[in-house]
Design goal:
By secondary structure, the chain is mainly α. It is about 55% helix and about 10% strand. The longest helix has 17 residues, at about 75-90. It is globular, with a radius of gyration of 14 Å.
């Protein structure tokens, strides 16, 4: 199993916001206190994401795939962020418990 780590709005605010945006767009419940993400150089990813405006971050997270690729190509940190967020979308979206799991 790949290594993961937990982020919060305090530890990595821009990366956390990106995960929240992806979660909400995918129909998963947003508003979690933390997110599990693949392990990586999260400080470098955070710094790269922090260079984006709010609109650029939104487009980078849930916009057109071609635009995401163009933004990712701007720096190694954004390229790594693009890969991590894709993996987050595919494998780590928060899932609410099934009704039978809450009884």
């Amino acid at each position: 199993m790949p290594q993961t780590t937990t982020i919060t709005a305090t530890s990595h605010p821009t990366l956390f916001e990106a995960c929240e945006t992806i979660s909400h767009d995918a129909g998963a419940q947003a508003g979690w206190p933390s997110h599990t993400v693949p392990a990586g150089d999260l400080d470098a990813i955070e710094a790269a994401l922090a260079t984006l405006t709010a609109d650029e971050l939104d487009e980078f997270c849930v916009g057109d795939a071609d635009e995401m690729e163009i933004t990712a190509a701007r720096s190694p940190g954004l390229s790594e962020a693009h890969q991590l967020l894709g993996e987050f979308f595919e494998n780590y979206l928060p899932r609410p418990p099934l009704p039978e799991d809450t009884q």
